[in-house]
Write a structure and sequence with these properties.
The complex is a heterodimer of chains A (245) and B (188). Chain A has 245 residues and is an alpha+beta fold. Helices cover 41% and strands 28% of the residues of chain A. In chain A, strands 1, 2, 3, 4, 5, 6, 7, 8, 9 and 10 form a ten-stranded antiparallel β-sheet that branches. In chain A, helix 1 crosses helix 2 and helix 5 packs antiparallel against helix 6. The longest helix of chain A is centred in the first third of the chain and has 22 residues. In chain B, helix 2 crosses helix 4, helix 6 crosses helix 9 and helix 7 packs across helix 9. Chain B is globular. Chain B starts with a helix and ends with a helix. The chains are: A alpha+beta (245), B mainly alpha (188).
Chain lengths: 245, 188
């Protein structure tokens, strides 16, 4: 997306009226463009002044105590929910679709950590992301994220990473990113538990050497600790050991 | 306004349930969210609810705030505005139900002029800056901001080309900023 295109959408971005797909593209551009961020800051300052001019009014003094009490209650409820995690409550209180929000947030986190979470040169970024990770889990109400580095089997130039998220509230899910240079076609990815139980990801279509597979399930994914990726003939091309992030 | 890094730290502390961060946020932004509720929802009780809902929603999404994407005050305001628009939509549905049931409207709870009065030197200066906007610029900005309209919808409602609508809002925001800078420089 060019600066000209972004500038054309900056007002709607500021006013939060952009459709989600456009919003994502604008945000992506803003992350890497200081000039457009500066323009956004100028517009934001104008909007802030507009709000001060048109609607600034002293709330009643008792409102502060009421708001802080509501927050305190919210925090206590969140704490209670977090403590209930080991029991995997059957009543899931979050609305359907919450897993999708969780997925989007976590994928953003994983992408920010980069390919191959085990790689030493990315360790610093992973550590820096740890605080964000803890807050993310706390916000989502999940048990944990677990990751694994996908290593190619002998003779296969395949690598990548796998992420599993076990949710207390809603569906658990996993995502596997595969990089298979010079390859194309369909791969399958299967999770295996200690007891031999298996869960299959959606098939992975490799295009331009890359592909992604998803798994969304109501099953408890905590018992699964190994991922195997196979080609169309059933041969193992890569595998990963999965551990806590 | 806080430095961007300080704004991020404040929101991170809020995400960690730091009561001092909650109070700081309240002190900084409650008056504008409350005023937004008075303007958009038209009564004190709804405005108070809006403040409470806004701060709870802000906490739930506190980890998502990134100062590199914009100022904290506009972020807070957009959260409040979104909730106000949701409340207005619910109100439309409820009023239709009441009309169908033949219910009487409750006594008017709209705030009096003294309650709508703005506070503080900054607000006074902002109001002066507002006087520098043309009627067209102000109308477009108000429609987009209070009406929750896209720039395309503003263009349609005002009967003007999309580019003109964008130019009016854009120019209004920058003019406010310039006018405020001029006000600050003019101070002894």
């Amino acid at each position: 997306m060019s600066c000209t295109q972004v500038r054309d959408q900056l007002l709607d971005h500021l006013l939060t009226t952009l459709p989600e797909t456009e919003e994502s593209r604008v945000r992506r551009h803003l992350r890497g463009c200081a000039a457009c961020r500066a323009e956004l800051a100028r517009l934001g300052e104008g909007l802030s002044l507009f709000s001060q001019a048109t609607h600034q009014s002293v709330p009643p003094p008792e409102l502060e105590a009421r708001v802080l009490a509501a927050l305190d209650e919210e925090w206590r409820e969140a704490t209670s929910a977090a403590q209930a995690v080991p029991d995997r409550p059957t009543e899931r209180r979050r609305p359907p679709g919450a897993w999708l929000v969780a997925t989007a947030a976590a994928v953003a986190l994983v992408v920010s950590l980069g390919w191959g979470v085990g790689q030493a040169h990315r360790a610093d970024r992973a550590v820096a992301g740890a605080a964000s990770y803890a807050r993310l889990l706390d916000t989502l109400g999940g048990t944990e994220f677990r990751v694994g580095e996908l290593r190619g089997a002998a003779g296969h130039d395949v690598r990548g990473s796998v992420l599993l998220y076990d949710s207390v509230w809603d569906r658990s899910w996993g995502v596997v990113f595969v990089e298979a240079q010079g390859s194309s076609g369909t791969l399958t990815a299967t999770l295996t538990g200690a007891d031999g139980q298996e869960l299959a990801f959606a098939s992975i279509q490799i295009e331009d050497g890359e592909g992604t597979g998803w798994l969304v399930t109501r099953a408890d994914v905590r018992a699964f600790d190994r991922l195997t990726v196979r080609d169309a003939s059933g041969s193992v091309v890569a595998s990963a050991q999965i551990a806590a992030a | 306004m806080l430095e961007p890094g300080a704004e991020t730290e404040l929101m991170q502390a809020y995400a960690r349930r730091d009561p001092r961060a909650a109070r700081t946020l309240y002190e900084r932004y409650a008056s504008r969210v409350y005023g937004l509720g008075l303007v958009m929802l038209g009564d004190r009780a709804a405005a108070e609810d809006l403040v409470q809902d806004t701060f709870v929603k802000l906490w739930r999404g506190a980890t998502r705030f990134e100062s590199s994407r914009g100022r904290l005050d506009t972020y807070v305001l957009m959260v409040g505005r979104s909730l106000a628009i949701d409340a207005l939509r619910r109100r439309v549905v409820e009023s239709r139900s009441l009309e169908r049931a033949g219910a009487l409207r409750e006594a008017d709870e709209r705030p009096g002029p003294e309650e709508m009065a703005m506070t503080g030197d900054q607000a006074d200066r902002a109001r002066k800056a507002m006087s520098r906007l043309s009627d067209e610029q102000r109308a477009a900005l108000e429609l987009a901001y209070f009406g929750g309209r896209t720039t395309a919808e503003v263009a349609e409602i005002e009967g003007i080309p999309l580019g003109t609508a964008k130019t009016r809002i854009h120019a209004a925001l920058l003019r406010l900023r310039e006018a405020m800078s001029a006000e600050r420089e003019a101070e002894p």
